[in-house]
């Protein structure tokens, strides 16, 4: 059975099946799918490239690292968070603040209502 990228030949059914979560198949005709590195996952089944392997929810990829790290306290890390991509930085939880220059250095706000969460420096004054 000649399967497409993102699929493998299921020996039990003799049919092509999509690669399960946490795996991918780059080449056509794969007999099995390649697993992502430990701590990484894919968001969808049928992934076709190692770039589909991202840090799992609750973790993020620090700059110049090959391993996912736990989400910093006071932040939320959806699947795929990556410190090297501004749009993919972990996000602040309600009641926490950080500076744009050091977005992963998180502080608890004195007045929680002044800190709505989200990207760095989204707080009101006198936080």
List the helices and strands and how they pair.
Layout: E1 7-10, E2 15-18, E3 23-24, E4 34-35, E5 40-42, E6 53-55, E7 59-60, E8 69-70, E9 75-76, E10 91-92, E11 96-99, E12 102-108
Antiparallel strand pairs: 1-2, 3-4, 5-6, 7-8, 9-10, 11-12
Structure notes:
The structure is a single chain. With 127 residues, this protein is an all-beta fold. It has two domains: 7-55, no CATH class; 72-114, no CATH class. It has no helices and twelve strands. The protein has strands at residues 7-10, 15-18, 23-24, 34-35, 40-42, 53-55, 59-60, 69-70, 75-76, 91-92, 96-99, 102-108. Strands 1-2 form a two-stranded antiparallel sheet. A two-stranded antiparallel ribbon has the order 3-4. Strand 1 (7-10) and strand 2 (15-18) form a beta hairpin. It is elongated and about 65 Å long. The chain starts with 6 loop residues before the first strand and ends in a 19-residue tail after the last strand. It comes from Noctiluca scintillans. This is Tyrosine-protein kinase ephrin type A/B receptor-like domain-containing protein. Residues 6-53 form the Tyrosine-protein kinase ephrin type A/B receptor-like domain. InterPro entries: Growth_fac_rcpt_cys_sf, Tyr-kin_ephrin_A/B_rcpt-like.
